[in-house]
Amino acid sequence: MVDQQIVKFIKKHHVLTLATVDGKGLPYVANCFYAYDAKRNRFIFTSDSTTLHATHMAQKSNVALSIVLETRVVGRVQGIQIRGIAEQGNEEDRSAYVKRFPYTALAPLNLWSVTPTMMKLTDNTLGFGKKLIWQSEE
Length: 138
Description:
The chain is of the alpha+beta class. The protein has helices spanning 4-12, 52-59, 91-100, and strands at residues 15-21, 27-37, 42-46, 62-69, 78-88, 111-123, 131-135. It has a six-stranded antiparallel β-barrel. It is globular, with a radius of gyration of 15 Å.
C-alpha cells in the first residue's frame, strides 16, 4: 500500500518529468501532463508515437519519473523520484486521463502508463530531509 503522504503529493501536481534511454544508452527527458490512478497505482500521460521518448519506451520499458514543487523555501522542499515500467495505455487509463483533463475527451490520445516499482518522496514539511520510500512487492 502506498503511503497516503505520497499519494497526496502526487495528486497535488499535474506535470511530471519522464526520463527514458535509447538503445545506445543515451538518456532523454520530457515533461508530460499526467493523471494518477491511485487504485491501480499508475501514472497516465499522452505522447505521440513519433516522439523520441515514446520511441524509447517502445524499445525499453524501464523509465524514471520526477515530480517537484518549485520553491526557494528550504522548509517547503518536496519532490518525488520514481522508477517504473512503461506500457501503452488502455481504456481504463483513458477514463482516468479524461477525468483529470476533461478537455481531452474528444481528442485522439496515444496514452502511456507507468506502473511504479519504487517511489521516494522527500518532504521537508515533515522534517528536514524526511524521506518516505515505497517499493513494489513484486
